[in-house]
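User: Please fill in residues for this 244-position structure.
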């Protein structure tokens, strides 16, 4: 902890296929949201993996003949929230916690030197409801996260979270005391460009070799070995003594 008792390590979690597993659920939200907004099903889906919802929404509207004006983007985001509310039961049955996720979150939540939050392509509301529905809420400080409506480029979400955490806790969060955990090459790129260490988990569509090639500082098969995960986080943020 810092002299004033504030946390000195920042842990930034991805959501889909890192903390939870719900294959194709986000695509279902987009299909249902588009149908709700336009009264017709989409002709085309777009790649949403590792991308902020603002960017995916822009592409989704364009791909289906809707001009992505700011008003239309806001309408679609509201429809995404509607789709989330109407698909909670579906998520409960089709989704699950990633193995080890709850225990890692619990261990870190008990550490006064650690602040943990989200850096996710999800809208904040979607992220919170997904985690609440699958029993992973209560361990994260959502107020300092970086979310899918904060920027189009994912790496900027890392910067947003660091800035929010620094403002809240009065601690400088940089690449020496901030770590991202995620499952895609886009997560890796976001961490490296956004100024954070990167621990990748091969629990999504990209295998260990692919995540290593993307430049992750460490790649783990999953979160099941809680001691190893927490130890890696500690090692990645061990340079807290160099803070000014």
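Assistant: Residues filled in for all 244 positions:
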């Amino acid at each position: 902890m810092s002299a004033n008792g504030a946390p000195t390590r920042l842990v930034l979690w991805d959501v889909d296929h890192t903390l939870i597993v719900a294959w194709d659920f986000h695509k279902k939200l987009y299909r249902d949201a588009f149908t709700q907004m336009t009264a017709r099903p989409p002709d085309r889906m777009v790649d949403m993996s590792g991308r902020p919802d603002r960017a995916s929404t822009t592409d989704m509207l364009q791909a289906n003949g809707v001009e992505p004006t700011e008003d239309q983007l806001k309408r679609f985001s509201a429809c995404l929230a509607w789709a989330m509310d109407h698909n909670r039961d579906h998520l409960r049955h089709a989704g699950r916690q990633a193995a080890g996720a709850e225990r890692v979150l619990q261990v870190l939540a008990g550490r006064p030197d650690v602040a943990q939050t989200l850096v996710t392509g999800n809208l904040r509301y979607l992220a919170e409801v997904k985690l609440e529905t699958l029993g992973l809420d209560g361990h994260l400080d959502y107020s300092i996260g970086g979310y899918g409506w904060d920027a189009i480029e994912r790496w900027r979400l890392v910067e947003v979270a660091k800035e929010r955490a620094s403002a809240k806790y009065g601690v400088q969060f940089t690449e020496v005391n901030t770590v991202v955990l995620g499952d895609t090459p886009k997560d890796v790129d976001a961490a490296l460009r956004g100024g954070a260490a990167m621990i990748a988990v091969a629990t999504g569509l990209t295998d260990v070799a692919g995540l290593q090639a993307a430049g992750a500082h460490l790649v783990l098969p999953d979160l099941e070995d809680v001691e190893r995960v927490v130890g890696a986080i500690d090692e990645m943020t061990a340079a807290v003594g160099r803070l000014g």
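For context: Residues 9-22+96-242 form a domain with the Rossmann fold fold (CATH 3.40.50.1000).
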